[in-house]
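As described in the Methods, two query proteins were run sequentially through the folding procedure within a single session, without resetting any intermediate state between them. The first query and its resulting structure tokens are shown here.
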Amino acid sequence: MATTQAVPSKLPWFTSGDIDGFFGLFLSGFPDLLLIVGLAPICGFPNEFVTGRVLPGVAFSVLAGNLFYAWQARRLARRTGRSDVTAIPFGVNTPTIFAYVFLIMGPVYARTHDATLAWHAGIFASLLSGVVQTAGAFCTDWLRRNTPRAALLCPLAGLALAYLCLGFVFGVFAQPAVALAPMIVLFTLYASRLRLPWRIPPALLAIGLGALLVAVLRHFHLYDSPVTTVSQPGVYLPHFVNILTLFNQGEWWSYLTIILPLGALDTLASLQILESVKAAGDDFATTPSLLTNGLATIAAACLGSPFPTTLYVGHAAHKANGARSGYSAINGAVTVALCLTGVLPLVLRVIPLEVAGPVVVWFGLVTVGQAFVEVPANQAVAVALGLVPMLAQWATSLVTTVLAKANSSLAAVMPSLAGNGSELALGGMIALGQGGLLTSMLWSATLALAAQRRFTPAAAWMAAAAVLSAFGVTHAYALTPGGAVGRIGWWVAPEFALSYAAGAVFLLFCGVLAARSERFV
């Protein structure tokens, strides 16, 4: 717990610790901005579109959240008579960037070749996510109490492992001359928690080293990166989106299997972060803290950003470094300056994604490790199992991309493979990946409860899996030239529905056996 310090008669707006806090928070969120620009081509977005329509919405949502949490910290400081209150860190939600790009907007663009339609699909997803987060501010505690911790941690951990870690690790080893050394530096400093001279942030050192290597190797013509067009620097203000027209696209409702679980899990993750903030000594009110996050996501969608916001980890570290409220306000202002001036595509030329990627990889690995550490030892296997559906989903997207580059598709290849994929089991990989977030939660919850011999609630989770697969929410798919798409309907995956139903009956039978054995002990 933090040591309480008396508040001075005039609370300062900035302290020396706010500078350290700003660099720490900014370098946590800066790679996200580069990701948005760097991954935009997957959705068909040209840089001019990202600069003029997407980033301004990101800027104002991040600014509004940072200013609120800075104000909230100052308000708590005055109310409690303390000068050591630290604002909650806040920014763009990294896992959701990958989820929306690779699972929603990318597939829509691959199928339709319509970048505007892909953008609208992302805004629709972000808007619904904000609604879920806003509603979750009032009822999240119930979901947390009735869901095993493994089920809460596994979907995000699987998403982090598949999309944050694997893709960027492969990118690092594809460009080892400029990216491998920065990754070694970053991982060493983060893992050892060694403090550098002059309190240089590890991410700043690693990204700076990568930028230096890029400049030197490019000077000697030893490094070639794709040359992309960039927008002219200027002032780009946000524009409101007519969100009412987005609900006319019926096909987007099939993405609810991604949007709703992610929105609920993001809210729960924010609640857990808020609890760690309280453990560090800053007891902020739960509802307004979570509500602001949801409203910021809705505002981002209304202004053209398809990327939700979230509370960040790291409050305790910022607090230990002396950050108070000013670091949050500075971060919001700098983010606005970067997003509204059109300079981010230029920055990406100096700092390629392969260089900034290790920062994202590290936080992805932390998310995966947390899923194993924060559950009892006998539930570790449930966590391991819960990672598999997201890996299957990622592998399916990888196969789809490779086939598309070869002017083919899963629809063209699968019929020629005996047994729906032969030894590759492509059909099973696709089925497991459909509704992967929900499948991850269902399987990890069932196995975690079985490990605790709580067979009746485990049977309830398995029965839920039967119902969801019966309606095609999980496992059901259809092959199209653009890849595998979900099949929502009644009795579209009967093999899975009946198998899950049988599993639920077996779990109830195990409960009876367990009750009898305990009776005779």
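Immediately afterward, the second query was submitted; its sequence and tokens are:
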Amino acid sequence: MKLRGQKSLASTIAPLLAIVLAMFTPDDVSLVWAQKVTGSAVASGSSVRPKAATHPFEPAEELVYLGEFSRALLKKVDVADFRFTANREPSPQNMGEVESSQDQGSARYLLKLTGDVSSKGFFSKLFNLRFREQIESIVEPNPFAVKKTKKVDEQGKRARISESTYTEGRVVWTEQDPNNLSRESRTSSATFSGQMQDVLSAIYYLRTRPLEVGKTFEIAVSDSGNVYQVPVQVVERNRKNTVLGRVDTLRVDPQVFGPNRMLAGDGQFSIWLTNDSRRIPVSARIKMKYGTFDITLRKVIQNPALQKSLASIAVE
């Protein structure tokens, strides 16, 4: 089994691992501090009133996951660390404007999503498999659609840098070897209609949708210049023990394995999201012939910049 256009197991694992995202405010005390600091900032001269977040992952969050591998007698071996962030940034055509998108009916900001997935521990040594994948996605918040994707893919000594742009129903993908800039770039393009996602923005988009057990819908996802229609099935409702406690969840299965899909061959990809308005992905599981990968939520900070400010206040 291999990812289209790639040749290694790492190329299959890393994009899948990079999909799993979440949101949670870990500490009630931090929430109280956040309210105090935000209130002080507004009271000290800002004329812009704070706006309610359009999506549960706005205005900012930082996400931490752990990936584990199991096969036969090899149980729950740490294989990868994850770190994801979501932030608002000004839309280029509106850099000097302070009005929000809610006031004007069009986006005055974009969402910048970043993901960093890297191999770790015994797994890397056992299989001599070392990888790191960094993804940056620029997303239009309403309607929720990706505008640009940048990716850095490192597998051992091999490295690739790629960029995808999405304009007027067309995606254009370019990939370069940073270790050999004289080598001709690889390019690919495809047409699409409607809202497009990449592998990083797809789960954020999933969190914005209503989910009901038994329902199936499709998400258009682009990867390496190709466009895939990914069926997503809401399979069941159950309760799970998580870092958030014991919570009600919905199991969602994106159909990424199979002929003419993102991953050739047999496998299953499942995500568990909290069954509430936040739709927090608390865990995921990837089953394939190599074994089973479990990805588990460990820590999330809702407002990373604020948390750093609070930390500096604490030491003063």
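The two ends are 54 Å apart (CA to CA). We note this only descriptively and draw no conclusion about the first query from it.
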